[in-house]
Amino acid sequence: MNLTRDILDQQVVDRTGQRLGKVDGVILELREGEPPRIAAIEVGPVTLARRMHPRLALWVEGWLRRLGPKSDGTLRIPWSKVRAIGVDVRVDLVADGTAARAWEEWLRDHVVRRMPGTPQ
Amino acid sequence: MKKYLEVALGIFTSIGGFLEVGAIATTAQAGAQFGFRLGWVLLLGTICVIFLVEMSGRLSAVSKHTLQDAMRERFGAGFFLVTTIPGLIVDWLVLAAEIGGVALALQLVTGIGYQWWAFPVAIAGWLFMWKGSLGLVEDGVALLGLVALAFVVAAVKLHPPVPAVAAGLLPSLPRAEGATYWFLAVSILGALISPYLFFFYSSGAIEDQWDENHIGSNRFTAIVGMGFGAVLAFGVMLAAAMVFHPRGIEVERYEQVALMLVEPLGRPGLYLFAAALAVTCFGATLEVALGRAYVFAQGLGWNYTLNSPPTNSARFSLVYTGMIGSAAVLIALGIDPLALTVFSMALTAVTLPLVTLPFIVLMNDPAYVGEYRNGWIGNAAVVGISLLASLIALVAIPLQLMGG
Amino acid sequence: MSAPEVRAELLLGRKVLGPGGRVDARIEEIVLEPRGEDYVVREYLSGPEGFLEEIFDFAAGVPLLGSIPFLGRRIRRRPIQWDWLDLSNPEAPRLRPHPDARG
User: Fold this and answer.
1) What is the pLDDT of residues B311-345, one digit of tens each?
2) Which of B288, B308, C4, C99 has the fewest CB atoms found within 10 Å of its own CB?
3) What is the ipTM of this complex?
4) Which CATH number is B2-403's, of 1.20.1250.20, 2.60.120.260, 3.40.50.2300, 1.20.1740.10?
């Protein structure tokens, strides 16, 4: 299995089939005398921004922590929770309530629900 | 057979993506200045769009991923960010131009200045997307768009000489005013081959849950849907050629363009023109706003759907809301929609290769299209289209400065 | 996490320094294999250096263009085994001296 081709930037889907995000980062654990192992995948705009430039990541993180749900939206999913790698990366958790959904849920409750013509 | 009714997606995409303010403006100007001689550009653009639309649909049906999904997954986050940011700015300008088109149509009929119509149009578009489903958007605009057949009716009534029309379908070099000729050729191609068209079509295919059984109907939809738009655009060029060219009139304002329907159809022609302009631009407004929102949501992995209430896809819904609201500001401030149209078409042409080149890789990658890979015709087409797109991208801005 | 960790998404695209400090290649892909419950790194694939090589590499992958003899050549690179790469400084991965490694 190849990291770039099969894991990185692939769509992450939760136990209920809901879209959780793209795999923005992969955490490798370094070990003495043993090959590095995949410890976790990471979903979040800060992780994505860091791939462009570390300063961009700090800037994005600053704003996300200051506004709205005050969360930087980073979700680290341990590799043990990854169920399948195929057309999507399926993970054994429910997206609702996690950091990955923090902004979606906050915007839904504080902006979308308050707009005219939205069914409650 | 029900799948063939999904041709509605094709017709809708065609009305908003193919025939919209840019296409109407450029083909009318082409007809006015060069008669039938730029017909081959229209034909070339149509063929390119049919190939690319068919490929977008096939990619989505087989891989169950949209074009934008596949682009990030296959080429990485860097590619996504580098192509999305310029694309966003360009599409924002195009969106403003389309809102301007609807506003101008309303100005034509009511006499009230187009600036006053900017926000009402934006709100109407927003309501369609917020309250409606993708099916409603597709079917509604496709049905209303049939009013654009007025262009074809007008063209037929003007009895264009068939041999001259046929000759125009063959590529030719300009006899005079070379810079303007090529500028219009490039503008027509830029107006017809718009990236948001493919992103939207591919997203619609996923929303409508296409699978491998849809390969055949996808091909039918691409050909018939885009072909329909091409016939409409051709009608515009023919009508403009018959009404303006013999008199040497250069089209400079939308009120003049309406004349091409008034002469053959009388007073109703004015209202038909306004209706056709309004509907096609309205369709384009929805398609551009949604297309960009889809790109954002898919590139970043968010939920996105028009088929359930906005509460299920808050970020996606707020993206198209923000886009349509901010684009309306440009028109409300009084920026000339026609100038904005021409400018945004040139910018679109510059971003085109970044969208067509990935097709070369994706349509040959079994991980995405399985056994439905491109044959040699498909590959030759997509390589040729990419070369054409790269050429257009290089000359678009210089030509605009020289001949625009 | 107590064990030292490395972000794979930042490792990709990083230049690998050879034993003499010379830039040897760029990490283009990380190949993994299952080992029990885990997936571990087996080897690193290095990629094209320089713009011209990137173009040849891309062209070789495209069906029509790849069959043109001049464009279709692709430099075969030996994969870097996991234990040849010293990641103690993740921002500057170093190639450990090894009889099989390119020096």
Assistant:
1) 899 999 999 999 999 999 999 999 999 889 888 88
2) C99
3) 0.91
4) 1.20.1740.10
Kindly list the structural domains of chain A, giving each domain's residue range(s) and its CATH number in brackets, ordered by start.
3-112 (2.30.30.240)
Identify all chain C residues contacting B361, using CB atoms and an 8 Å cutoff.
61-62
Q: What residues of A are in the C interface, CB distance below 8 Å?
A: 1-5, 8, 24-31, 34-39, 47, 50-51, 79-80
What's the whole-model pTM score? Answer: 0.89
Q: Looking at chain C, which residue has its C-alpha nearest residue B376?
A: C64
Residue A4: other Cβ atoms inside 10 A: 22
CA distance B278 to B274: 6
Contacts of C9 in chain B (CB under 8 A): 77
Contact A107, A81 (CB under 8 A): no
Per-domain residue ranges of chain B: 2-403
What are the DSSP calls for B274-286, one per residue?
Answer: HHHHHHHHHHHHH
Q: Which chains touch C (3 or more CB pairs under 8 A)?
A: A, B
Contacts of B5 (CB under 8 A, 6+ apart): none
Instruction: Determine contact: B390 vs chain C, CB below 8 A.
Output: no
Q: Quick one: C8-49+78-95 is in which CATH superfamily?
A: PRC-barrel domain (2.30.30.240)
